[in-house]
Amino acid sequence: MKNTSKRTRLVAGGAVAAALVAGTVGAVSAQASPAAPAAAGGAAAAPKAEAKSEGLVSSAHLGTDAAVKAAQGALKAAEKANQHVSVAVVDRNGNTLVTLRGDGAGPQSYEAAEKKAFTAVSWNAPTSELTKRLESAPTLKDIPGTLFLAGGAPVDAKGAPVAGIGVAGAPSGDLDEKFAQAGAATLAE
């Protein structure tokens, strides 16, 4: 075996590395390119499926700006009453849009506010009313993500629920719900 100089080994190694990089870039580029028309005798690309408009449903959802406004309205109402609460606003699907933890709010209040908001929008009813339903259907409380305590208020638009506001941390659920309803009222202003 012939001894090659260090320079020759570096040049050869660089050439191999360059070839590998060029091959990899070429393969990635080929995969990222739009599909070429099928070659003669090759399989044609699958046609794109397009849903007919009569099969589609649209729904209204509360936007982020409105959710922030509602949460701030609920928190402001609680602060005026010297209460330390957390506020959550969820969209029609129960996804959290915004949460605010007021100064001095207890650690449990954050999660409780989210669950109250989720419960209110899920049944499109204030959670204080829903607690009464537990008498006839006690297993409702077993549904994951729900909390059947007063403090959640639904938000409607054109007769359909678009969000839920939950408040937790005041000494009573009645106060929590009063603050949640104050937050919902800011959306009508």
Q: What is the radius of gyration computed over CA atoms, rounded to a whole number of angstroms?
A: 29 Å
- Can you tell me the overall shape? extended
The main β sheet shows up as: 4 strands, antiparallel
SSE order: HHEEHHEEH
Count every helix, treating DSSP H or I runs of 4 or more residues as helices.
5
Beta-strand content estimate: 5-15%
Q: Helical content, roughly?
A: 40-55%
Terminal Cα separation, in Å? 88 Å
The parts where pLDDT drops under 50 for at least 5 residues are none
Judged by helices, strands and strand pairing, the structural class is: alpha+beta
Mean pLDDT across all residues, rounded?
Answer: 85
Number of strands: 4
Order of strands, widest sheet: 2-1-4-3
Can you characterise this structure?
By secondary structure, this protein is of the alpha+beta class. The chain is 42% helix and 14% strand. The protein contains five helices and four strands. It has helices at 6-32, 64-80, 109-123, 127-133, 173-185; strands at residues 86-91, 96-101, 152-157, 160-168. The chain has a four-stranded antiparallel beta sheet with strand order 2-1-4-3. Helix 2 packs across helix 5. The mean pLDDT is 85.
